[in-house]
Sequence to fold (178 residues):
Amino acid sequence: MADNSFSIDVAAIRQRARQKMDDGPLTDGYRRSASEVVGVLNDVLATEIVCWMRYSRHAISATGIDRAQVAAEFHEHAEEERDHAMRVAERISQLGGDPDFDPKTLAERAHTTYETFSDDDLKGMLEENLVAERIVIESYQEIIRWLAGGDVTTRRLMEQILAEEEEHADDIMDLLGR
Fold:
């Protein structure tokens, strides 16, 4: 019968930790290029910032009979997008990278676009945000598959964000009555 008990060489782990302190959180178990992951995450950061700006604009400018409900949802989504951006920026920093908040390149790097509508076109705003959520969902699914077991922490972060983006899409579907 095979022995399936757990065993770990703590002394060896302690020795490696002391020898490679300058590597910070990146251990020998990290199976991705940190600089490549940082590049991908900086595009995610740009996407989240653009989504935050679009939702914020829509929350402020929305008018019409359903304004209160729609604007409240846009405001909630905007705050969550901002939170996503900050969590991604923190991860970039943990990986030894620099979060790229450069406003000159945000729109170029983002997976989504920044579209505005007339203040009374709530349906247009909702539909554009639904399209953006669907783009983000598909993009983030691809990133998660790519990360796989190579960077478990970043994969888990992206999975958490993906779940919230799926909730956003569901919320918008409810507001659209679909």
Summary: The chain has six helices and no strands. Helices lie at 10-19, 34-61, 67-94, 106-109, 122-147, 152-176. The chain has a mean pLDDT of 93. The two ends are 56 Å apart (CA to CA).
